[in-house]
Amino acid sequence: MILVTGATGFLGAELAKELILRGNTIRCTKRASSTIPEILIPYPGKIEWVEADLMDAFALEAALEDVTQVYNCAAWVSLKAADKEPMIRTNVTGTGYLVDLCTERGIRMVHTSSVAAVGEAKPGELITENHHLDPTLEEDGYAISKLESEMEVWRGIAEGLDAVIVNPTIIIGPSAGIEGSGQIFETVRKGLKFYTRGTIGFVDVQDVAKCMIALMESDITAERYIINGENRPYQQIFTEIANCLGVPAPATLAKPWMMELAWRGAAFWGRLTRQAPAIDKTSARAASVTREFDNSKIKKAIGFEFKPVSETVKEVCEVLTK
């Protein structure tokens, strides 16, 4: 049996669908309050849904009955400052529980991390799997939680766990809707006026799922892989999305000091409204930074060729304009 944790999320749902389309019957975890994603509704006979939170070791133990492979896609993502410490604790502790159970039972795992947990390269160099985040210099709670969750997996590997770690860049795809990375498209559609000088990696959600399955089915173990389709300047991707949606492209450069004002204003407004800020300090500063990722390791390992980001952009725009 194959178990997918976090199957109600964007990546987890796409991964579950890909597994089903390959002829598998799978088990997926969900919280009691979660709803089944639209893309998985057509496959009720192919999915055994179980209620299991990563922080509930007993529920996890039951979910792992007769399981031989685990795809761990579950994680708490939040920009709220108040959520930082509980998010780190939840993501790390939950991963630790799962790692311990998989180690005890000889279950193979593919763990989903993020490039947020990968360090920086020297100017002009590509970021590779050999770069590591320095937690003493990091303020982003999500990045810290993903790094420390990876450390739990590496601890498990040292104790005999058969596992591989993937670090996707920004995952995009039609099923995201207007949440997560879908907010980028929705923001441009509503009329984004500013762009920044930064660069970041983007990857199609189906490509991430396919890479994870290929790694699971390989004999590779104790490795981490950056999963990245293409590196794109923010201005370029925003302009492409705008052209695709038939709206004006952002034309004004937002300089770093402007982004500094933006996150401070958003934080103040968030405190007044008791809502998550539209932009936080980490994302505001990252928007002006060039981070380019090397995908040669995963391409060589499984012979994979990534889907052009422009094709995914068109698919997302088609869904948004319907």
TrEMBL record:
Look up the domain of life of the source. Bacteria
Which residue windows are coiled coil?
none
List the SUPFAM superfamilies hit by this protein, alphabetically.
NAD(P)-binding Rossmann-fold domains
Identify one Gene Ontology CC term for this UniProt entry.
cytoplasm
UniProt domain NAD-dependent epimerase/dehydratase: residue ranges: 2-219
Molecular-function annotations in GO? aldehyde dehydrogenase (NAD+) activity
Pfam families per UniProt: Epimerase
Annotated protein name in UniProt:
Nucleoside-diphosphate sugar epimerase
**Source organism:** Mucilaginibacter pedocola
Lineage of the organism:
Bacteria, Pseudomonadati, Bacteroidota, Sphingobacteriia, Sphingobacteriales
